[in-house]
Design brief:
The structure is a single chain. The protein has about 70 residues and is mainly α. Helices cover about 45% and strands about 0% of the residues. Helix 1 runs antiparallel to helix 2. The longest helix has 15 residues.
């Protein structure tokens, strides 16, 4: 059985970590709880993660060693 028919295949994507995080903030955090939570998370994303090299990496290429 190949990965394509075995539920393990994932379509290649160029979606970067920062694009995904920004989309996640808007779709899953904003307006779904305390406004302070959204502001806090957005601050972390924009002030820390967005400035890191990993932010521009495609999500599919991120490995545990990139997060250490």
């Amino acid at each position: 059985m190949s990965a394509a028919n075995g539920d393990t295949f994932i379509e290649p994507s160029k979606l970067t970590l920062i694009v995904w995080l920004r989309e996640w903030l808007e779709s899953s955090v904003k307006g779904k709880g305390s406004p302070g939570t959204y502001t806090h998370y957005k601050g972390i994303v924009e002030n820390h993660i967005a400035k890191a090299t990993i932010a521009e990496m495609p999500i599919q290429k991120i490995r545990p060693t990139h997060l250490e």
